[in-house]
């Protein structure tokens, strides 16, 4: 197996929305900005709706209230690091007031 194939992986994480305002345009933009820093493919799902984690249009459609569970599925060479970063960002409340 080549080094490149060995580095290719998948990761799944779940994070709960903890900021009072929930998922809106600002958090969506923060997730996209974070996702763009990775090479992996990212799918983010909330309440049964899935979106490309690198598409601002797609991510803005995930508007969700406080307490919603966000599923993060990542595949690619930096999947683990990407999933960890997105989970931490969502879990931090995006720098907004927490519930």
Which class in CATH terms? Answer: Alpha Beta
| Global geometry | globular
Please, how many helices? 4
Mean pLDDT: 92
* Overall helicity: 25-40%
CATH topology: Histidine-containing Protein, Chain: A
Oligomer: single chain
* Major β-sheet profile: 4 strands, antiparallel
CATH superfamily: HPr-like
H/E series: HEHEEHEH
The parts where pLDDT drops under 50 for at least 5 residues are: 1-7
CATH architecture: 2-Layer Sandwich
* Computed Rg: 13 Å
Report how far the terminal alpha carbons are from each other: 47 Å
Question: What report would you give on this structure?
Answer:
The protein is α+β, with helices and mostly antiparallel strands and 99 residues long. The protein is 34% helix and 26% strand. It has a 4-stranded antiparallel sheet with strand order 1-4-2-3. Strand 2 (41-46) and strand 3 form a beta hairpin.
Task: Record keyword descriptors for this entry.
single chain; 99 residues; alpha+beta; Histidine-containing Protein, Chain: A; four-stranded antiparallel sheet; 4 helices; globular; disordered N terminus
């Amino acid at each position: 197996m080549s080094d490149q194939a060995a580095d290719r992986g998948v990761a799944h994480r779940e994070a709960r929305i903890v900021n009072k305002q929930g998922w809106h345009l600002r958090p969506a933009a923060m997730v996209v900005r974070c996702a763009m820093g990775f090479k992996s493919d990212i799918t983010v799902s909330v309440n049964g709706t899935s979106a490309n984690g690198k598409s601002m249009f797609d991510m803005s459609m995930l508007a969700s209230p406080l307490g919603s569970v966000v599923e993060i599925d990542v595949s690619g060479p930096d999947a683990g690091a990407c999933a960890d970063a997105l989970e931490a960002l969502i879990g931090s409340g995006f720098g907004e007031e927490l519930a």
